[in-house]
Design a protein that fits this description.
The chain has eleven helices and ten strands. By secondary structure, it is an alpha/beta fold. The protein has helices spanning 2-36, 73-83, 86-103, 118-121, 126-136, 158-170, 187-190, 202-205, 212-228, 240-248, 268-275; strands spanning 40-48, 54-65, 69-71, 112-115, 144-149, 174-180, 197-200, 231-234, 253-254, 263-264. The longest helix has 35 residues, at 2-36. The protein is 48% helix and 19% strand. An eight-stranded mixed β-barrel has the order 1-2-4-5-6-7-8-9, surrounded by five helices. α3 (86-103) packs parallel to α5 (126-136). It binds ligand C2E and calcium ion (3 copies).
Length: 277
């Protein structure tokens, strides 16, 4: 009836404004966190599957807010992108990683991977920010790896993006494609990219080795990567069976709860001392 329709409309409306209120609160708290430098990073070990040694770390954003509690990066990053705060956030992440690498310098040196938003790569300031961070903390470029997703393969921007990736690689910084297999990157294009590694997405890894479809996809990615001279890093490895399957098929690196959860910075030196090659 008409009455019902109106109620439905009113309900929808109040739900919308509730969502807006929440988002505004989140926005206000995020501004506050960025101003205070209250964001934090955890580091997840990357393990060489042949040797079992720690070969790298991935920096993952953590935000604990006094009012909101723990807020997931899966929520924070898209919000920061919508609000135009992603460059500020991304710069703080790079700064934190470089400052941390400087503190770990006397320990075994393994590269730390930083996740990038495609918006950061499109910014004309990005290279300057990157160079500034490296020189301020005197970090060898080889100790930084940048993870980008396939969402940057926008055909109209191909030239500019390729130039950006080449500028990054020419500095000696490593590049990998995150969540590989979930986007729409064309294979012909992949061949032209100056990248070092593909990260096999967790959605494939989690169904190994039992599921025929995921087995075939994983083997295809591994075979193609080998042909192109790229390494493969499997993400989200949770079981011994997954690790064994990947090792048997010459996947170079893996990360996941089976090896270690992302760790607070002060838990990393133990890994560097015991585990690094
Ligand atoms: P991602 O780059 O694909 O990172 C892997 C995510 O999987 C992380 O979630 C990690 O904690 C989780 N993970 C690792 N091993 C396992 C496992 O064995 N099983 C399961 N179920 N999960 C595992 P997290 O930390 O919540 O990050 C979510 C996403 O947020 C990241 O996905 C990345 O896209 C984004 N992100 C995180 N930090 C940053 C950052 O500093 N900058 C940008 N731009 N994005 C970030
Ligand atoms: Ca990543
Ligand atoms: Ca990933
Ligand atoms: Ca993922």
């Amino acid at each position: 009836s008409k009455e019902l329709g109106r109620n439905k409309f009113r309900f929808y409306n109040s739900e919308m404004s509730e969502r807006t209120r929440q988002e505004m609160r989140l926005e206000e708290r995020l501004h506050h966190a960025l101003a205070k430098g209250a964001l934090n990073l955890h580091y997840q070990p990357k393990i060489n599957l042949a040797s079992g040694c720690l070969e790298g770390l991935e920096a993952l954003l953590r935000w604990h807010d006094d009012e909101l509690g723990q807020v997931s990066p899966a929520e924070v990053i898209p919000l920061a992108e919508r609000l135009g705060l992603i460059e500020t956030l991304g710069t703080q992440v790079l700064e934190m990683v470089c400052a941390q690498l400087q503190k770990w310098q006397h320990l075994a040196r393994v590269p730390v991977a930083v996740n990038l938003s495609v918006l950061q790569l499109q910014s004309e300031h990005f290279l300057r920010v990157l160079d500034h961070c490296l020189s301020r903390y005197q970090i060898a470029p080889e100790l930084i790896e940048l993870e980008i997703t396939e969402s940057f393969f926008i055909p109209e921007r191909a030239e500019a993006m390729l130039a950006m990736l080449e500028a990054i690689r020419s500095r000696g910084i490593r590049l990998s494609i995150d969540d590989f297999g979930t986007g729409y990157s064309s294979l012909a294009y992949l061949r032209k990219l100056p990248i070092n590694a593909l990260k096999l997405d967790r959605s494939f890894v989690q169904n190994l080795p039992g599921s025929q479809g995921e087995v075939e996809i994983s083997l295809a990615v591994l075979g193609m990567a080998r042909g192109l001279g790229l390494e493969v890093i499997a993400e989200g490895v949770e079981t011994a069976a997954q690790a064994e399957f990947l090792a048997k098929h010459h996947c170079q690196q893996a990360q996941g709860f089976y090896f270690s959860r992302p760790l607070p910075a002060d838990a990393v030196p133990r890994w560097l001392e015991i585990n690094a090659p």
